Structure to design on (576 residues):
């Protein structure tokens, strides 16, 4: 990439917490991200919406390098995480990550889930770590459950422990990857309430979600992605309330009123979006090259 | 369907499947009872006892060093298990390494030691002091046995441990890495503890096999204070010209292996209940 004089990369402004420039990501032949450029500012809540396969989760996972971008640059508070010399582990401590499937450590209690990185990564004394962990568990409404194992908790409770675990590192920003998609409908509310409180405190949040009501109410900005590009972005009132692009309108119609969608509509739309990809898609998505074990190269 | 068969073949009323199964079961019981009866009637009880279970020789087996032999069997097994577990874990991690030569070394090691009889490995290590005069393995004779049996069992254990590591969901290491843990720390603090929980039952099975494999020690030259159960029982069998000591020694293996078997079954039941 040859940077001409026009935009400064990175901006150098501490409030531009996540800066993404021309991000591309391919899995084998399949190009999932086709040039994403955006900036997320301090205290901003950005919801990323879009149909499945649009690349929104991949985008989020590229931000903390759980996926290695094919090309493009990402800066976290003006430090380039895509730089081969970057201290990824230190940069990751500044970003809390919440997964769709919780990914709590099942052999540790809720409290230990929150303290393990504090004592092992940040080298905090055990007593201090437990104090921090307890405060965060209390914050998500689970102060009494510190001694419980993940297997003894409901999905909603597990996800809130996962949020407390991420918050315990005192991150500058939080990444949420479909945090409520694996939950029973009646458990979604508790998790969203915690996230809403977090947003009200001024936490910078990047949220991949299908919860349109949450996006409309809490987000400062909504990014609609489709086919690996940002199709439309702006205030939720505009993007969700008055979408300009036909693809956004089509997507929102299906999501907001799913009972009136004709059978096969989504299949047809998907096929159209992925016309160029379908030939290679048959190889199984190509998430990992065969023979790569649990030390996947994407984990840097 | 019943209507059709009834119309076509009215001569023989067919047994219902349930009744037929019942009759088959009855026949099986009758065969079993007949076999047991035949053994009891033809066996010469007193003669059997004279050959296999002479009370005075049972007592003599106990007093002439059985506890020491049992202790040695346990010592050989435990040491070899520790060596095997250590090398096995290392091999499993090498097998999953991103550095290709490590994977090759691990694969070659595993295929070699799984394919060669444990007895040959043991004999080779026993012969080291002949091959290299003056060479001393520490803690003789335990050192030789621990290393030889440990290296063989490591090949089997590494495959078990590798499967255990791969059974830990990828999301676990992603969560650990997202908290800022380097790969090594994530492996040690998050992946391995879960992997070992998964592989404890199969590893206990490995321990049972190892207990029995420790009997191979009889093949290398040992001083009498290094005798384990098999060598001890066989020597006493030869000197008394009676099978009793060997049988007693054999039963001693059960003292070790049966509790382990029960333990494995318990753990497997518990694991089955725990999986949601």
């Amino acid at each position: 990439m040859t940077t001409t004089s026009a935009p400064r990369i990175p901006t150098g402004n501490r409030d531009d917490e996540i800066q993404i420039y021309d991000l591309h990501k391919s899995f084998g032949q399949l190009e999932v991200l086709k040039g994403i450029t955006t900036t997320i500012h301090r205290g901003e809540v950005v919801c990323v919406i879009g149909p499945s396969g649009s690349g929104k989760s991949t985008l989020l996972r590229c931000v903390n390098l759980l996926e290695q971008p094919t090309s493009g640059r990402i800066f976290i508070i003006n430090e380039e995480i895509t730089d081969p010399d970057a201290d990824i582990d230190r940069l990751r401590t500044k970003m809390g990550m919440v997964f769709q499937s919780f990914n709590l450590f099942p052999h540790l209690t809720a409290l230990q889930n929150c303290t393990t990185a504090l004592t092992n990564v940040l080298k905090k004394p055990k007593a201090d770590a437990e104090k921090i962990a307890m405060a965060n568990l209390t914050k998500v409404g689970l102060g009494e459950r510190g001694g419980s194992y993940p297997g003894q908790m409901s999905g909603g409770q597990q996800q809130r422990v996962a949020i407390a675990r991420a918050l315990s590192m005192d991150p500058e920003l939080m990444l949420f990857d479909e945090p409520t998609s694996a939950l029973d409908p009646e458990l979604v509310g508790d998790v969203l309430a915690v996230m809403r409180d977090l947003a009200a405190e001024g936490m910078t949040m990047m949220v991949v979600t299908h919860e349109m009501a949450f996006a409309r109410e809490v987000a400062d900005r909504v990014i609609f992605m489709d086919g690996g590009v940002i199709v439309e972005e702006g205030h939720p009132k505009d993007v969700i309330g008055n979408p300009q692009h036909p693809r956004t309108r089509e997507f929102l119609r299906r999501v907001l009123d799913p009972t009136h969608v004709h059978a096969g509509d989504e299949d047809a739309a998907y096929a159209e979006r992925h016309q160029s990809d379908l030939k290679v898609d048959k190889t199984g998505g190509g998430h990992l090259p065969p023979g790569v074990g649990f030390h996947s190269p994407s984990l840097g | 369907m019943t209507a059709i068969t009834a119309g076509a073949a009215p001569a023989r009323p067919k047994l219902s499947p349930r009744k037929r199964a019942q009759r088959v079961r009855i026949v099986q019981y009758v065969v079993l009872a007949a076999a047991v009866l035949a053994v009891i009637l033809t066996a010469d009880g007193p003669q059997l006892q004279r050959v296999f279970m002479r009370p005075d020789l049972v007592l003599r087996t106990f007093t002439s060093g059985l506890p020491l032999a049992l202790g040695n069997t346990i010592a050989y097994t435990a040491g070899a298990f520790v060596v095997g577990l250590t090398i096995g874990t290392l091999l499993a991690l090498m097998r999953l390494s991103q550095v290709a030569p490590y994977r090759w070394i691990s694969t070659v090691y595993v295929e070699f030691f799984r394919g060669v009889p444990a007895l040959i490995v043991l004999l080779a290590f026993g012969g080291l002091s002949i091959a290299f005069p003056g060479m001393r393995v520490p803690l003789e004779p335990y050192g030789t046995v621990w290393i030889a049996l440990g290296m063989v069992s490591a090949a089997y254990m590494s495959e078990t441990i590798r499967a255990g590591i791969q059974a830990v969901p990828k999301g676990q290491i992603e969560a650990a890495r997202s908290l800022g843990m380097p790969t090594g720390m994530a492996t040690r603090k998050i992946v391995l503890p879960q992997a070992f929980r998964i592989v404890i039952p199969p590893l206990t099975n490995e321990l049972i096999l190892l207990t029995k494999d420790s009997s191979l020690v009889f093949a290398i030259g040992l001083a009498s204070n290094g005798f384990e159960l098999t060598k001890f029982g066989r020597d006493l069998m030869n000197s008394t010209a009676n099978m009793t000591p060997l049988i007693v020694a054999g039963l001693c293996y059960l003292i070790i292996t049966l509790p382990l078997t029960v333990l494995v079954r318990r753990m497997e039941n518990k694991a089955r209940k725990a999986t949601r």
User: Anything to note?
Assistant: Chain B touches chain A through 30 residues (CB under 8 Å). Chain B has one domain: 55-274.
